[in-house]
């Protein structure tokens, strides 16, 4: 997991600087979701014995996307608000992120357990797992120590079940990232210079009024 930890902070910092220079966020947010989709789709292909290049490479992709979205989501919310509403909107972004993480954990664990149950029952029917060594989905979280005591052939079957179950979680996440990509594409391409433009307009209006009164 070290590649993710190392990549996200510099990705967020560079994206923030780029958004400040371009004064736009829409297409960078869309690009971030593309990185997300690519990385998550790659992780969904991993099985029991992936190469180190696959493990690191796919993490780099979705970590770059995740870093880009740290400033991007704030910019998207703040740019569309009136000046007096920006602080409240920023607070709601934090609340929405925490709420989404709570639902994300529940959704991920539910997906994992459901796929686990389907695969275990399939392999029991096929005779790959004896019925007395069958583990239900609600036991998956603490299954490592239990599976370590099983015969090697059964352990290998469970390793594959774990890999496929996790892969299904990545697929669900990739689909949600696709929804985010569509949302980013259809969002308005607002300028981050809105505040300075409003100030300029007020200054120009005041100057015009002053010139008219003098005339």
Looking at this protein, list some descriptive labels:
single chain; 215 residues; mainly alpha; disordered C terminus
Low-confidence stretches: 195-215
Report the average pLDDT across residues.
87
How many β-strand runs? 0
N to C succession of SSEs: HHHHHHH
Largest beta sheet, briefly? none
Question: In terms of quaternary structure, what is this?
Answer: single chain
Judging from the principal axes of the Cα atoms, what is the shape? Answer: elongated
Strand residues, percent: under 5%
- The amount of helix comes to over 70%
Give the distance, in angstroms, between the N- and C-terminal Cα atoms. Answer: 70 Å
The structure class reads mainly alpha
H/I helix tally: 7
Mind telling me the C-alpha Rg?
A: 25 Å
Can you put this structure into words, describing what you see?
The chain is 78% helix and 0% strand. Mean pLDDT is 87; it is low at 195-215. It has helices at 2-22, 26-43, 52-78, 86-125, 143-147, 152-186, 194-214. The radius of gyration is 25 Å and the shape is elongated.
């Amino acid at each position: 997991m070290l590649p993710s930890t190392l990549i996200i902070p510099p990705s967020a910092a560079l994206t923030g600087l780029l958004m400040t220079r371009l004064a736009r966020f829409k297409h960078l947010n869309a690009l971030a979701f593309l990185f997300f989709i690519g990385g998550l789709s790659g992780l969904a292909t991993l099985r029991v014995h992936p190469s180190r290049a696959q493990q690191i490479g796919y993490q780099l992709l979705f970590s770059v996307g995740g870093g880009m979205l740290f400033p991007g989501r704030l910019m998207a919310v703040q740019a569309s608000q009136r000046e007096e509403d920006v602080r409240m909107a920023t607070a709601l972004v934090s609340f929405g992120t925490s709420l989404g993480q709570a639902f994300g954990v529940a959704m991920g664990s539910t997906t994992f357990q459901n796929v686990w149950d389907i695969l275990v029952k399939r392999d029991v029917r096929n005779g790959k797992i004896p019925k007395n060594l069958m583990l239900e989905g609600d036991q998956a979280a603490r299954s490592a120590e239990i599976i370590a005591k099983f015969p090697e052939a059964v352990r290998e079957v469970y390793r594959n079940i774990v890999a496929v179950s996790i892969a299904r979680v990545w697929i669900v996440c990739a689909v949600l990232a696709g929804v985010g990509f569509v949302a980013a594409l259809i969002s308005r391409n607002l300028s981050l210079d809105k505040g300075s433009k409003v100030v300029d307009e007020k200054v120009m209006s005041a100057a015009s009024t002053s010139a008219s009164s003098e005339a």
